[in-house]
Design goal:
alpha/beta, five-stranded mixed β-sheet, 6 helices
Protein backbone atom coordinates (compact mmCIF):
# COMPACT_ATOMS: atom_id res chain seq x y z
CA UNK A 1 0.00 0.00 0.00
CA UNK A 2 1.32 3.43 -0.90
CA UNK A 3 1.60 5.85 1.92
CA UNK A 4 -0.58 8.63 3.21
CA UNK A 5 1.37 11.78 3.96
CA UNK A 6 0.17 14.15 6.68
CA UNK A 7 1.89 17.52 6.25
CA UNK A 8 1.77 20.07 9.05
CA UNK A 9 2.15 23.58 7.68
CA UNK A 10 2.88 26.94 9.21
CA UNK A 11 5.26 29.24 10.94
CA UNK A 12 5.18 28.92 14.75
CA UNK A 13 6.61 32.45 15.08
CA UNK A 14 3.46 33.91 13.49
CA UNK A 15 0.82 33.04 16.08
CA UNK A 16 -2.04 30.97 14.69
CA UNK A 17 -0.09 30.34 11.48
CA UNK A 18 1.80 27.68 13.49
CA UNK A 19 -1.38 25.61 13.95
CA UNK A 20 -0.43 22.86 11.50
CA UNK A 21 2.88 22.20 13.24
CA UNK A 22 1.22 22.21 16.70
CA UNK A 23 -1.32 19.64 15.48
CA UNK A 24 1.42 17.53 13.89
CA UNK A 25 3.33 17.48 17.19
CA UNK A 26 0.18 16.43 19.05
CA UNK A 27 -0.34 13.59 16.54
CA UNK A 28 3.24 12.39 17.04
CA UNK A 29 2.98 12.53 20.84
CA UNK A 30 -0.52 11.17 21.40
CA UNK A 31 -1.33 8.75 18.57
CA UNK A 32 -0.01 5.46 17.27
CA UNK A 33 -0.32 5.58 13.50
CA UNK A 34 0.24 2.73 11.06
CA UNK A 35 3.58 2.60 9.20
CA UNK A 36 2.00 3.70 5.91
CA UNK A 37 1.12 7.09 7.46
CA UNK A 38 4.04 9.50 7.29
CA UNK A 39 4.04 12.71 9.33
CA UNK A 40 5.96 15.56 7.68
CA UNK A 41 6.87 18.98 9.05
CA UNK A 42 6.19 21.06 5.96
CA UNK A 43 6.91 24.40 7.59
CA UNK A 44 10.01 25.29 5.55
CA UNK A 45 10.32 22.53 2.96
CA UNK A 46 9.06 24.47 -0.05
CA UNK A 47 9.68 22.70 -3.36
CA UNK A 48 11.33 19.81 -1.46
CA UNK A 49 7.77 18.69 -0.65
CA UNK A 50 7.17 17.85 -4.34
CA UNK A 51 8.53 14.26 -4.26
CA UNK A 52 6.84 13.65 -0.88
CA UNK A 53 3.47 14.69 -2.34
CA UNK A 54 3.95 12.95 -5.69
CA UNK A 55 4.96 9.65 -4.08
CA UNK A 56 1.89 9.58 -1.84
CA UNK A 57 -1.42 7.89 -2.49
CA UNK A 58 -3.16 10.43 -0.25
CA UNK A 59 -2.14 13.83 1.12
CA UNK A 60 -3.60 15.45 4.22
CA UNK A 61 -2.55 19.05 4.86
CA UNK A 62 -3.00 20.56 8.33
CA UNK A 63 -2.98 24.35 8.49
CA UNK A 64 -4.59 27.55 9.70
CA UNK A 65 -7.10 28.18 6.91
CA UNK A 66 -8.37 31.72 6.51
CA UNK A 67 -11.79 31.69 4.85
CA UNK A 68 -13.16 34.62 6.84
CA UNK A 69 -15.10 32.30 9.16
CA UNK A 70 -15.41 32.73 12.93
CA UNK A 71 -12.02 32.23 14.63
CA UNK A 72 -11.64 28.61 15.64
CA UNK A 73 -14.15 27.30 13.08
CA UNK A 74 -13.12 23.95 11.63
CA UNK A 75 -12.54 23.98 7.89
CA UNK A 76 -12.06 21.08 5.49
CA UNK A 77 -11.12 21.67 1.88
CA UNK A 78 -11.20 18.96 -0.76
CA UNK A 79 -8.68 18.85 -3.62
CA UNK A 80 -10.79 20.95 -6.00
CA UNK A 81 -11.10 23.76 -3.42
CA UNK A 82 -7.38 24.01 -2.64
CA UNK A 83 -6.26 26.32 -5.49
CA UNK A 84 -8.80 28.99 -4.49
CA UNK A 85 -7.78 28.78 -0.83
CA UNK A 86 -4.08 28.91 -1.63
CA UNK A 87 -4.50 31.81 -4.05
CA UNK A 88 -5.96 34.04 -1.34
CA UNK A 89 -3.67 33.00 1.50
CA UNK A 90 -0.96 35.47 2.48
CA UNK A 91 1.76 33.48 4.15
CA UNK A 92 5.33 32.68 3.08
CA UNK A 93 4.94 28.90 3.28
CA UNK A 94 1.70 29.01 1.31
CA UNK A 95 3.34 30.54 -1.77
CA UNK A 96 5.68 27.58 -1.93
CA UNK A 97 2.90 25.10 -1.30
CA UNK A 98 0.71 26.62 -4.02
CA UNK A 99 3.58 26.20 -6.47
CA UNK A 100 4.29 22.64 -5.29
CA UNK A 101 0.65 21.56 -5.63
CA UNK A 102 0.30 23.29 -9.01
CA UNK A 103 3.43 21.57 -10.33
CA UNK A 104 2.35 18.16 -9.00
CA UNK A 105 -1.06 18.69 -10.63
CA UNK A 106 0.50 19.81 -13.92
CA UNK A 107 2.65 16.68 -13.94
CA UNK A 108 -0.45 14.57 -13.25
CA UNK A 109 1.04 13.48 -9.92
CA UNK A 110 -1.16 15.29 -7.36
CA UNK A 111 -3.07 12.55 -5.53
CA UNK A 112 -6.82 12.63 -6.16
CA UNK A 113 -7.27 12.24 -2.41
CA UNK A 114 -5.71 15.50 -1.26
CA UNK A 115 -7.48 17.24 1.63
CA UNK A 116 -6.68 20.23 3.85
CA UNK A 117 -8.03 20.31 7.41
CA UNK A 118 -7.62 23.27 9.72
CA UNK A 119 -9.09 26.01 11.81
CA UNK A 120 -9.89 29.63 11.04
CA UNK A 121 -7.07 31.68 12.63
CA UNK A 122 -7.83 34.43 15.12
CA UNK A 123 -4.48 36.18 14.71
CA UNK A 124 -1.46 35.87 12.44
CA UNK A 125 1.17 38.17 13.86
CA UNK A 126 4.67 37.99 15.27
CA UNK A 127 4.03 35.98 18.44
CA UNK A 128 5.20 32.45 19.19
CA UNK A 129 2.00 30.95 20.57
CA UNK A 130 -1.45 30.06 19.34
CA UNK A 131 -4.40 32.26 20.27
CA UNK A 132 -6.56 30.98 23.13
CA UNK A 133 -9.39 30.00 20.78
CA UNK A 134 -7.13 27.85 18.58
CA UNK A 135 -5.31 26.34 21.54
CA UNK A 136 -8.71 25.26 22.94
CA UNK A 137 -9.70 23.75 19.56
CA UNK A 138 -6.41 21.91 18.93
CA UNK A 139 -7.75 18.58 20.24
CA UNK A 140 -10.80 18.94 17.97
CA UNK A 141 -8.52 19.52 14.98
CA UNK A 142 -6.43 16.45 15.82
CA UNK A 143 -9.66 14.44 16.15
CA UNK A 144 -10.68 15.64 12.65
CA UNK A 145 -7.29 14.57 11.25
CA UNK A 146 -7.64 11.14 12.88
CA UNK A 147 -11.19 10.92 11.48
CA UNK A 148 -9.90 11.60 7.96
CA UNK A 149 -7.15 8.99 8.35
CA UNK A 150 -9.71 6.44 9.56
CA UNK A 151 -12.00 7.36 6.64
CA UNK A 152 -9.04 6.38 4.45
CA UNK A 153 -8.95 3.01 6.29
CA UNK A 154 -5.93 3.68 8.49
CA UNK A 155 -6.08 2.19 11.98
CA UNK A 156 -5.15 4.90 14.49
CA UNK A 157 -4.91 4.29 18.23
CA UNK A 158 -4.39 6.73 21.08
CA UNK A 159 -1.14 6.15 22.91
CA UNK A 160 -1.48 5.00 26.51
CA UNK A 161 -1.58 8.06 28.77
CA UNK A 162 1.70 7.21 30.51
CA UNK A 163 3.64 7.44 27.23
CA UNK A 164 2.85 11.11 26.60
CA UNK A 165 2.11 12.44 30.08
Amino acid sequence: MKNTVVIGLGNPLMGDDGLGLAALERLQDEWELPPEVELVDGGTWGMNLLPVIEDAERVLLIDAIDTGATPGAQITLERAQLPRYLATKISPHQVDLRDVLALADLRGMLPEQTVAVGLQPARVELVNELSDVLRRRLDDLVTAVIGQLEWWDHECRPRPAHLHA
